[in-house]
């Protein structure tokens, strides 16, 4: 068990002495939260079973949900994985360091406590300079899931980590706001055809350009309780604010059925000033009527909107998530906005579908989870 009520040291990730201290903590089996280019991670020595057990205790994470092992040198893959297929090497060369996690069969040195009892291991080389420095300086491979309390939105700022983890972990390295804002793409390379277990910044199209055919775990695109996701973590409710989230989507712009998980080919028509697309107008009207209804009943509401449409909502809390056609502006803001819904005490939250961009599949995967798959279609 992690010591609850320990004094958490909070330091800048750019401070050399802080990295040294954090490295020492990791070597001693303690917990350090640190920035990566995707979200903040909660790290422990991946090869020390007692250390990784503390991660589960601090997060309240179910013990069958394995951790990703973060490395700083590709040599580590050969120490951790039983075999390294050619396609894994191609992906490592193309996307590392970066937001791609690969699943390979594990070697014995990786404890069951790190892999949730699976005989496979998830490995990633992050590109964030603080993460890189910490892995190198500590000399340990760092097992790290997102540094949030289990079920809450992942942290994209050190403040989010402090909210969830202060007094539960040894140290937090503050690296400011992260760049991508949603977790890494996970690709399973243990089967015949590489399979995406979690969509992310690296899209199916980008992967296929390097290694040919890539499939997608169906359980992550179909909310069918009988389909068991291959990444154990994907079965849990996630990212959810306390209020009830509903997505309002135009039937005309649904790209979720496009199992490409990348909306790269779908470009919104250009929006002229003062002119809303008819499909957006229907969504706006529906959300405004839902907000009016709940406000009349005395509930606090919030709207998650793209920048272009934000001026047309009649709600006290219109939260602008980014520009409709720029995926990274949305992914970078999404979790902070879901957390903001809690800060303002929103009881009913209505969101536009955020699928009209190159990260549409990955973003909608998170938003649908936050909404418990509650979607209203308008036409
Ligand atoms: P987090 O870092 O919080 O995003 O959680 C790590 C994610 O990676 C979870 O969804 C896990 O289920 C998934 N994962 C980690 N290791 C494995 C593995 N060996 N096989 C499949 N999924 C994994
Ligand atoms: Mg997580």
Secondary-structure topology with pairs:
Layout: E1 9-12, H1 16-27, E2 32-35, E3 40-45, H2 49-59, E4 68-70, H3 75-80, H4 86-95, E5 100-105, H5 112-115, E6 120-124, H6 129-138, E7 142-143, H7 158-165, E8 171-174, E9 185-188, E10 195-198, H8 204-211, E11 215-216, E12 244-250, H9 278-296, E13 301-306, E14 318-322, H10 327-343, E15 348-352, H11 360-370, E16 375-378
Parallel strand pairs: 1-8, 2-8, 4-6, 5-9, 10-11, 12-15, 12-16, 13-14, 13-15
Antiparallel strand pairs: 2-3, 3-7, 4-7, 5-6, 9-10
Helix pairs in contact: 1-6, 10-11
Adenosine monophosphate (AMP) binds at residues 65-66, 68, 103, 115, 118, 120-122, 145-146, 183, 186, 197-198, 230-234.
Write up what this structure looks like:
- The chain has 379 residues and is of the alpha/beta class.
- It folds into two domains: 16-221, DHBP synthase (Alpha-Beta Complex), CATH 3.90.870; 244-378, Rossmann fold (3-Layer(aba) Sandwich), CATH 3.40.50.
- It has helices at 16-27, 49-59, 75-80, 86-95, 112-115, 129-138, 158-165, 204-211, 278-296, 327-343, 360-370, and strands at residues 9-12, 32-35, 40-45, 68-70, 100-105, 120-124, 142-143, 171-174, 185-188, 195-198, 215-216, 244-250, 301-306, 318-322, 348-352, 375-378.
- The strands form two sheets. Strands 1-8-2-3-7-4-6-5-9-10-11 form an eleven-stranded mixed beta sheet, sandwiched between helices.
- Helix 10 (327-343) packs parallel to helix 11.
- The chain is globular, with a radius of gyration of 21 Å.
- The protein starts with 8 loop residues before the first strand and ends with a strand.
- The model is unreliable at 254-273 (pLDDT under 50).
- The site of magnesium ion has 3 residues, from loops.
- Residues 65-66, 68, 103, 115, 118, 120-122, 145-146, 183, 186, 197-198, 230-234 line the site of adenosine monophosphate (AMP).
